[in-house]
## 1
Amino acid sequence: MGWTETTRRRYCRAGQRDANVLTDKEWELIEPFLPGTKATGRPRTTELRAVVDALLYIAWTGCQWRDLPDRFPPVSMVQRYFYAWRDNGLWKAINFHLVAAARLALGREASPSAGVIDSQSAKTADVAGLRGYDAGKKPQAPYHYRHRGHLVGLTVHTADIQDRDGAVGVIASIRRLYPWLRSYCGIVDSRISLVWWEASATQRGSAGD
């Protein structure tokens, strides 16, 4: 989607302190998926919208947890919600419904039938953990796979795993959410070669050079 006068007005953040904060319309889309108020126990004192804005701020700026500005909820609170929502699949559920809604708005089927797999390497901090070296792209870093257009799946792993092997993992991770997504196209082995993976992820054939 290109930038037009309509889209510029829709995503304008004029008058807001941070460029990443949710607009009222954006919040209306994801609020129904967030946990409601519990009938028992202590009442919630943290606004979930502020938590989401804090997470978007971290994603937008790339800052560390401890550098989260004081205008957001406490870091420990934001972390607790983030890890809880990650572990219970909330982020995947929100993304799944947003992708379906966006496709339906364009007059297409809710679930895609084909997608593009891409990979990108990035340097990691000098901390303990699994690491790998990608001889083709040089940096010692994890890869992530993404489908251009609407993101439907992402996997992070060490850079020494070849694209053709990493693709199997990302396909397996989205199979239940997107059963009609049967074919995947991508460039592998740092060569200009289009490759198709079938949904079974067991066969691979060159589609062109």
## 2
Amino acid sequence: MRMKDEIKQRALISATIATVNESGLASSSVSKIAKKAGLSPATLYIYYKDKEDLLASIYMDVKIEMSNYIINEITEESSLKKIFSQLWKAMFKYISCHREEFMFIEQFSSSPCCDIVNKKEMEKHFEPITGLIKDGIKKGEIKNVDMGLIKLFLFSPLMVLAKDMIKQGGEFKEKLIKEAFELSWDSIKL
């Protein structure tokens, strides 16, 4: 068995993200990814079971990195609205520095490949945010509706706005972000 090389693995990850963003998930073959990484296609199988394992691993790693980043950015604990506003700002800050990774997770999350990700494992990394929502419901600050709906109305507008801004090649507009957050917050608050 060959030894794992962190540089080669990093090259595979970078090449996968770039290839998926350029060609889409279905068209991103192991040979395309390996060629972009400057490696043999067989190298992928030293690190991952198959292409789906590679894609799911990258997705999990990026989502975990993103959750850690945004949760660590919360500095103020005054009102729930301010905390979620900080989360939005942190998400846009993360996305602006990791545009390629963000576009990759957007593609992956809307594909059938997402079904292979361990959802319970993923949720653990976002538990502090889920806890804030549950706390807000308990305190009567957030509507007592399905958690999935709360997350949909709170975070989907952020993702759509970020994706549109990236596709247009522009910078994230502070005023637009604030307005979108207010609309999102208004949809879940009591």
## 3
Amino acid sequence: MEFKDILAISGYPGLYRFVAQAKNGIIVESFDTGKRMHAGAHLKVSSMDDIAVFMHEGEARLIEIFRKISELENGGEAPDPKSEKDALFAYFEKVLPEFDRSRVYQSDIKKILQWYNILLKHNLLNLEEPEKEEQKKEAAEKDKAQPRTSQPAGSAAKKSTPKKTSSQGQKIASAGGGQKRMSVSTKNK
């Protein structure tokens, strides 16, 4: 599962997996309960790939923070998100020393630690280095960019269907498997 398919929904606990597009929103599945629900267009849904933490200069992507937590914890669980405020800030300062304390709140740190533990529990932490991810993407793009050699160079990809005329002189055009009769005059104008 890709990091962009893991979602956080404002006002709802835990993380969700994108299942399908619905008429007025999306269908998601909770990692905790396994239940599916409709997340309407009125809800704020954020992809893990889009979330970042404010730093004094710039932002740190969530995957980078998860990578640092994993290094600090040697691949184990993060501390309890229900710890006291001072303990949470002290821990997060070890993880990301340059984070902006005036714009990152205790609730933000709690969510990040909860999300890390959920992803770790479900073996969804893909902490590959960005260079490796980019190399995989480049290789996939090269495969797509290479022309297919199964068709001869001179053959046309689009096949035209011959026009047929009915016994009454009307043209019949084939449209996607079914046939439609078109009232077209065969007289010269």
